[in-house]
Amino acid sequence: MELTIFGIKNCDTMKKAIKWLDDNGVGYHFHDYKKEGVPEQRLRQWLEALGWETVINKRGTTWRKLDDAVKESMNTEKAITVATENPSIIKRPILQNDHFILAGFKADEWKDTLN
């Protein structure tokens, strides 16, 4: 699998991450959640590798708009349902290839992982 960056095009963090990849000459494929959705198999892979607490963005508007009962009872299966219905709740970006899955943009971590 080639390097893929998953996210939403107009997100400021995504813009920074894509600029970093471009500036560092890293080739990638961009997968837009809003246009292409989130494949359930991929989402399950992220949740298994990183945990729902990492994959689900609890700092964003989408999380804050969820019913309190949903937030309080969140688990992996609920995260799949919620993220499939509301892809903007997934932390951005998710960077993945055959060897790793990273959530969020941290330039130092990306540099260490990609070099």
UniProtKB/TrEMBL annotation:
**InterPro entries with a match to the protein in the record:** Arsenate_reductase-like (IPR006660), Thioredoxin-like_sf (IPR036249), Tscrpt_reg_Spx/MgsR (IPR006504)
* Record Gene3D superfamilies: Glutaredoxin
Concerning Pfam families, the annotation shows: ArsC
Q: Which family does it belong to?
A: Belongs to the ArsC family.
This chain belongs to which protein, by name? Answer: ArsC-like protein
Its taxonomic path starts at: Bacteria, Pseudomonadati, Pseudomonadota, Gammaproteobacteria, Oceanospirillales
